[in-house]
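Researcher: We plan to redesign the surface later, but first we want a full-length starting point. Tokens attached.
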């Protein structure tokens, strides 16, 4: 559940019944991919601290039926922060900016602008959020054995921007793509010294021309 028209994903609401169903359905493609690659799913599921991501990860954890399975949540996997205006709508944020003489009018389509950072305490750009998530994932790899699949539950926009920093997406393609709810995309660490990770499996969602980007 999300507050309509709010550009922040720092919303405290739980999964809907549909979201719970989609989370449960995420387990099978994870298991199928792991089996096809002769991998073992790492028994810690890594997730954002936001409730809906934590619940998704916990549903996957329960589905593993592994008594040693656990969750590890981190704010580093959260969506782009808009700081002190979190959970306001886009229109409300623009009104706040217009009322404050210190701030300029935001650029058109600022919500989807990868470079733009709102001038509020704690805010970050989409690219900054992507760098944060990419750095976390790079560190996470060091905790996995060669035959393990790590499961990360995060948020679409910050994951796509992380994919740019991992060398899997061109910057101009980020806004053309989205992600399906609870349908995993699989990344592989390059075996060479290349900084470009490999998109191994799972589909990005291609946005329709009329669809408003993040």
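Model: Full-length starting sequence:
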């Amino acid at each position: 559940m999300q507050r309509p028209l709010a550009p922040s994903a720092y919303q405290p609401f739980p999964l809907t019944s549909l979201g719970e169903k989609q989370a449960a359905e995420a387990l099978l493609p994870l298991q199928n991919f792991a089996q096809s690659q002769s991998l073992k799913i790492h028994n810690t599921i890594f997730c954002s601290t936001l409730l809906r991501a934590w619940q998704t990860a916990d549903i996957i954890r329960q589905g593993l039926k592994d008594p040693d399975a656990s969750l590890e949540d981190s704010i580093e996997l959260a969506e782009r922060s808009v700081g002190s205006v979190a959970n306001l709508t886009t229109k409300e944020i623009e009104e706040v900016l217009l009322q404050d003489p210190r701030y300029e009018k935001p650029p058109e389509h600022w919500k989807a602008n990868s470079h733009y950072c709102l001038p509020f305490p704690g805010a970050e750009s989409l690219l900054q959020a992507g760098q944060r998530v990419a750095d976390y994932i790079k560190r996470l790899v060091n905790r996995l054995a060669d035959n393990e699949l790590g499961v990360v539950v995060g948020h679409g926009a910050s994951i796509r921007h992380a994919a740019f920093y991992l060398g899997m997406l061109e910057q101009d393609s980020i806004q053309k793509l989205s992600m399906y709810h609870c349908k995993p995309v699989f990344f592989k660490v390059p075996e060479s010294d290349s900084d470009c990770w490999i998109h191994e499996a799972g589909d990005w969602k291609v946005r329709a021309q009329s669809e408003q980007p993040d």
